[in-house]
Specification:
Layout: H1 2-23, H2 27-47, H3 51-75, H4 78-81, H5 90-114, H6 116-122, H7 130-138, H8 146-167
């Protein structure tokens, strides 16, 4: 019962922070709400007794949000950080809501068509050993994920280099 209550609290925090993250017009508030979402996901890992994944979630993604803060301060003007420049137009909000609704309908149809929910309810409650998860994440066989991790690391390196190039100031000639 305590796990269910903790899950409900974490779910409310995650969903509320996610909604606030995408609806706020201030970049620093959005990054802060995203930080709350990431901490909530780490809480779910801790609730499932995956302490390593929870600690990795906090260290890696909290560090990533710190980098977002740094780039936001460097790349965005002071007026934008204070929320004085950006305003959401009504047409953009309506189109965003329609796109979100279409995405929700597509995900719901996929769930219902493939009967994921009924299969998840009938599966026995067995725990996957951490060694199996580790071999799946770092293996190079079929359905293992070492290559996507390498692609993501190269992509993040390219993003960091691009951010540095954008942030550096032009010299006067």
């Amino acid at each position: 019962m305590a796990n269910l209550v903790m899950f409900a609290i974490l779910a409310v925090v995650i969903l509320g922070s996610a909604v606030m993250c995408v609806t706020t017009t201030r970049i620093m508030r959005a990054a802060t709400f995203m930080l709350f979402v990431l901490f909530g996901v780490a809480g779910l890992y801790f609730l499932l007794d995956y302490t390593y994944l929870g600690a990795a979630q906090i260290s890696v993604y909290a560090g990533g949000v710190t980098m977002i803060y740094i780039f936001a301060i460097q790349l965005v003007s002071k007026r934008t950080l204070q929320g004085l420049v950006e305003r959401v137009k009504g047409s953009r909000a309506i189109s965003g809501a329609l796109i979100s609704l279409v995405g929700f309908v597509v995900v719901s149809l996929v769930l219902l068509k493939n009967e994921f929910i009924s299969k998840a309810c009938t599966v026995a409650d067995t725990e996957v050993p951490m060694s199996v998860i580790g071999h799946s994440l770092l293996g190079s066989e079929k359905y293992q994920y070492v290559l996507p991790f390498e692609f993501i690391s190269v992509f993040l390196l390219a993003c960091i280099i691009g951010g540095i190039i954008v942030a550096r100031k032009e010299e006067d000639k």
